[in-house]
Amino acid sequence: MREYSIAAIPADGIGPEVIAAGVTALESLARRLGDVKFSVETFDWGSAYYRKHGAMMPADGLATLKKFDAIYFGAVGAPDVPDHITLWGLRLPICQGFDQYANVRPTRILPGITSPLRHAEVGDLDWVIVRENSEGEYAGCGGRVHRGLPEEVGTEVAIFTRVGVQRIMRYAFRLAQSRPRKLLTVVTKSNAQRHGMVMWDEIAEQVSKEFPDVTWDKMLVDAMTVRMTLKPQSLDTIVATNLHADILSDLAGALAGSLGVAPTANIDPERRFPSMFEPIHGSAFDITGKGIANPVASFWTASQMLDHLGEAEASARLMRAVEKVTGAGITTPDVGGTATTKDVTAAVVEAIHSSN
Ligand code: NAI
Ligand code: MG
Question: Fewer C-beta within 10 Å: the chain N or C terminus?
């Protein structure tokens, strides 16, 4: 019996709804396969915890998480707590503390889900966006002086290090190499940002020499939005900075039909620390408690988690079940269906058990 310990942090808004759905799917996979077990421990960290304790998680939160095999994360964000507190109080400390420098975001149009792109169908859009997740524009470097005075200054400095850029480029080239098309697009903005981004381009060029079988090109981030929209078939693996990939992956999620289906993995490729798996979407307080949150992103990221843990069969089985269910039109309102979170989850559980 292979056993994995998973720390679940459902946190805010629809986080608890979609993580509960995902845990149900994991339990069902364990029952179906028989030789694998997931012991899930759930932590009540997030905005409610913040209101009680003045912090999003306990001071020794990272030490607690460190012993788990993986972290399964919902979303943070509450109407009455500032976003920079919820984000910097929980999700970012985990990503940075555990050096999860590769943020991996697969996008596909799933069966039964319609892309807002008139000519894009299942198979036309099959991307993986690799986001640099440890530095760049979100390094947290900067400050404010002369607060409130007319001469107040705020700086937000993007940090690019050779080590940081090299490791994300290597990760992206390796991932591109593992995919059938062996195709990588490096996103940049070196025309306007002439220091860090020029170094980014140079390192991409250098790392590319280690991967002669990968075809790669370079795209300015603004032009990239156009290419994603007009020629989605021309892209496969994509690597971009923290900020650029943050924006591009929201676009990718929307083009694939809904943010509610888009997953992400925060990976420490060296496996010194647990990696963290989460839906891309936020806490969606406009639909919290209504029972209609789309659990597909949560299932898909659970499948990424299974892959990372080396459980390729369970991962593939889960995605087959999800695609069977979306293909049968059992979907939530954000993608045009009428099913509830529970309906979709029950259908996925049924598909996990009935497939061979
Ligand atoms: P959001 O992703 O929560 O919601 C955007 C829109 O998509 C909403 O209309 C929502 O109903 C819909 N949506 C999102 N996920 C869905 C799902 N699974 N099923 C159906 N519909 C879904 O982004 P928004 O509204 O900008 O932010 C809300 C809060 O979430 C903010 O506090 C924000 O800071 C936080 N946030 C947290 C993230 C995280 O924890 N990683 C990521 C993005 C936002
Ligand atoms: Mg985002």
Answer: C
